[in-house]
Amino acid sequence: MEEKASGAASSSAAMPRAQGLGTPKPGNVEDPVVLEFADLRNMADLSHAIQQAYGPDGLGILVIRHVPGFVEQRRRLLPLAARFAALPDGVKQRYEDPQSHYSVGWSHGRESLASGSPDLHKGSFYANPLVEDQLRPAPGDQLQPWLHPVLLDPAQQQQQQQQQPGSQLHTASGSQRRPAAGVVPPSWGADEAEQARLRARYPGYLRPNVWPQQELPEVEGAFKGLGRLVVAVGCLLAEHCDRYVAARLDIKQGALADVLRRSLNPKAVGACSRHRTYPAALRPVPQARLLHYFAPPASHEAPAAGAAGGPADDHQQAWCGWHLDNGSLTGLTSAMYLDAAGCEVGCPDPAAGLYARDRHGRVVRVAIPPDCLAFQVGEALQVSSGGLLSATPHYVRAARGAAAVGVSRNTFACFMQPDVEEPMTCPAGACTRAAGRTGAAGPRCGAGKVQQARCAGWYSRQGVPAEQVAGGDLATRWSDGITFGEFSEATFGKYYQEGR
């Protein structure tokens, strides 16, 4: 990936390591920008790496290595995706939640592919990794993920452990100590009637978690362990993205990061609720997804593994069709491939995996090392950054060939996103400055701030028909000032088949 100067004011900090993982490989494989976790935690100047990954010539994805505990948490959770998917259909159906648009618990065959047919290639288990119910307190909820132990230096950890009873104490897992049972703190705000209204208005986000406690009780702990770690690291990355955008637009530093903090921290919500029409209530809304891509049947033995195909052929062979993430940041693990016995194996097809289309129309396979945590930009961050950081179309290509038969793909994604009633607005001045400079948000369309959205026809000029990108054009679902909840419901309507 070509490196470009960031154009920001220089920092006294040494330039952190932001190189690719190794030398360029033949074919269409691209190594993403790599950040060291220590540089992220120490708030080194990462503006060069942010632009390299998320800017006009980036793939919209970067990876972070040496995150403490990540390798172990990934290895603990991903095999459970295959174990849950192997349960009898009748058991799995008990963990479906139609009222959430199948965005809580088990979902299989509920999403639509670009062709309009149900997506039967994968099954997903959704949950909020921070809290059990976004509108009700529960023991063990983690309300301030940026205080996760991996983010604190030894002195901070000691200070946290020495806090006196009654203060805002966090446990070793990073969760805030809750009041006694039956005591609802004022920060939760919403009464029963307001809770019912919010659940009815935003069913895709404000439904309580469900867990297979009887069949696989270990899922909850493993899911929360990895999910909370991902969110914690994502909070750090959001701070760096915030720095990058604030240095280039006339906005106050912290504006972007506060969007996520308001969706995670009840005190921040109460302090920043001037745009809201409801009491300051806690609604931590990150949503995590444990994915199981079912093993290809024997009919997938042809064409051979690694065989090249045109765009239409690739689309037919997709495990997950072209789409964009609609939140702010998406944390991703690399895939774990398992055989029919549940044993880990290598990827059976060198052409299988995650593909992205860069800003110049190239389709490349993105290599995520198993010891690295990846982050993609979503549409909400594209809007709030005025197009300086841009979401990238991506899809997952299925494995093919005889070696792929009986081999499943398992992975984990955590979607960090704004509060459901957070306004999605472009920064002032972004229309004439950011879009024209980066070109990352599509062409100018003469429609004021809406030009930050991808215009109709942009995908086709990049070789991807708009109808092949799930959710359609951003401009058809977003207008300046719409809330994230309204935007998400419009997106859910594109992804899911109602009444299935």
Automatic annotation (TrEMBL):
Polar residues: bias regions: 165-176
Biased composition regions of type Low complexity, renumbered to the chain: 1-14
Superkingdom of source: Eukaryota
InterPro entries noted in UniProt: IPNS-like_sf (IPR027443)
Annotated stretches, region: Disordered: 1-29, 154-189
Designated name of the protein: Non-haem dioxygenase N-terminal domain-containing protein
Organism: Tetrabaena socialis
